[in-house]
Amino acid sequence: MTMQQPNLSASIDPVKLDRLAEVAVKVGLQLQPGQDLFLTAPVAALPLVRRIAEHAYKAGAGLVTPILSDEEVTLARYRSGADASFDRAPGWLYEGAAKAFAGNTARLAIVGDNPMLLAGQDPAKVARANKANSLAYQPALEKIVGFDVNWNIVAYPGSAWAAQVFPGEPADVAVARLADAIFQASRVDVDDPVAAWGAHNAGLRRRTQWLNEQRFHALHFSGPGTDLTVGLADGHAWQGGASTAKNGVTCNPNIPTEEVFTTPHARRVDGHVSSTKPLSYQGTLIDDIAVRFEAGRIVEAKAARGEEVLNKVLDTDEGARRLGEVALVPHSSPISKSGLLFFNTLFDENAACHIALGQCYSKCFVDGASLSPEQIAAQGGNKSLIHIDWMIGSGEIDIDGVHADGRRVPVFRKGEWA
Ligand code: ZN
Ligand code: ZN
Q1: Which tens digit of pLDDT belongs to each residue from 36-70?
Q2: What is the percent of the chain with per-residue pLDDT over 70, rounded to a whole number?
Q3: Is the pLDDT of residue 2 over 60?
Q4: 3-state DSSP helix/strand/coil % of the chain, to nearest 5
Q5: How far apart, in whole angstroms, are the C-alpha atoms of residue 173 and residue 366?
Q6: Separation of 262 CA from ligand 2 center, angstroms?
Q7: What is the 3-state secondary structure (H, E, C) of 288-335?
Q8: Domain boundaries, the chain
Q9: What is the C-alpha radius of gyration for the chain, rounded to an integer number of angstroms?
Q10: Which of 301, 343, 349, 407 makes an SS bond possible with 280, Cβ 3.0 to 4.6 Å?
């Protein structure tokens, strides 16, 4: 039996929600006059979907097409779906999305689902469904990771998610608190959020410029449970904040964002590293991860919780055991200071330095847009169906930049920019 979810959108400040919609359209997407928008969201996020549609059309959008998902529909599949259905995915939808992106349609995703939705389900079925979905999604995902068009992700405080972040609070209080945390992290709790984003983007640009001038050969991370050398890909480029898609539009793909990030060398990562925050991966919490790398490949992986799911993820394909991203975030970032664990990568990855298993971003190479997949692979870029960020930063992590001649430059000390 299920109960009708009470309407909790009344607990969410409508002014700030409208500003979030405005920021998503003007900063996150920088939606262009005449440009179409493809949007996905959980049904609970309908109030934000409607505000975004309003701002998008005011900005001159061609056509806004939303597709809504529902947690109960997802669970119905696990309860009653035939076994063979777990190897299926709506390929026709993703082919349509790929076609839309090829025609310069912008992409917006609203996240806000229950992070533990699939926690009680058979991990084998979850893995099969994820793999089928990743495979079917590939034609569309290629255009997103290749940054063909402007895209953006924002968050809406779904009630199950809010209950996870604020356990023990009444539902309306939890939703209101998560909404405030989202608004603060997304910089819409100020009068002119578009200007605030301009200043924030300028700060991130100064960091990426310094790192790009340094041209480090590798980064060395040291701290409790961590002694890891992450080789950087040949011709890597640091990115952060606003960046320009191949269609010429400068957008902010993630709202919030605090990271600067680049591409590691898929065959030059060595040592061991421990996670500093739990990883919420499609309904399962994976905690206390400890892995060892040899020549770029994870050869040993343990987790205090969710180890079975972790190992299934690592077996997705060859690239799933190698890194596709390394990102630097100071321990004093606003999201880190909030002290909250959001159980959502969009937020948690902005609380700490992190690495990502799987697919790299071509935009994290010098002239990345003009490189073929073969060239990217030759320069050390990784390829995989997955891209999963997990946190390795804390107030105790030191990072050195290592030049090709062995010269070392302090980059982080005790979790802060040196
Ligand atoms: Zn990242
Ligand atoms: Zn990432």
Answers
A1: 999 999 999 999 999 999 999 999 999 999 999 99
A2: 98
A3: no
A4: 40, 25, 35
A5: 47
A6: 10
A7: EEEEEEECCEEEEEEEEECHHHHHHHHCCCHHHHCEEEEEECCCCCHH
A8: 9-185, 216-240+259-417
A9: 20
A10: 343
* Spatial contact of 365 and 381, defined as CB atoms under 8 Å apart: yes
Q: State the residue for tokens 């997705």.
A: 316
Structure tokens at 241: 């904040």
What are φ and ψ of residue 89, in 5° steps? Answer: -155, 155
The answer to whether residues 192 and 225 touch, using CB atoms and an 8 Å cutoff, is: no
Classify 9-185 by CATH class.
alpha beta
User: Distance, CA 255 to ligand 1 centroid (Å)?
Assistant: 12
Question: pLDDT tens across 360-393, in order?
Answer: 998 899 998 889 999 999 999 999 989 999 999 9
Q: Token digits for 407? A: 């010269």
Tokens 């005449």 belong to 34
| Residue 234, burial from CB neighbour count under 10 angstroms (0-12, 13-18, 19+) | middle
Tokens of 198: 């301009």
In the reported structure, the alpha carbon of residue 361 is separated from the centroid of ligand 1 by a whole-number distance in angstroms of 10
Are 8 and 171 contacting, i.e. CB atoms less than 8 angstroms apart?
yes
Separation in Å, CA 30 to CA 70, 151, 278: 28, 9, 33
End-to-end CA distance of the chain: 55
321 within 8 A of 383, measured Cβ to Cβ: no
Crossing angle for the helix pair 193-214 and 14-23, to the nearest 10 degrees: 40
Could you tell me whether strands 64-69 and 37-42 are parallel, antiparallel, or unpaired per DSSP bridges? Answer: parallel
- As residues whose CB is below 5 A from the ion ligand 1, the structure lists 259, 261, 327, 349, 389
For ligand 2, the distance from its centroid to the CA atom of residue 324, given in whole angstroms, is 8
Which ligand has the shortest distance to the CA of 356? 2
**Encoding tokens for residue 164?**
């996870």
The answer, yes or no, to whether residue 4 has pLDDT greater than 70, is: no
Phi, psi for residue 223 in degrees, rounded to 5: 175, -175
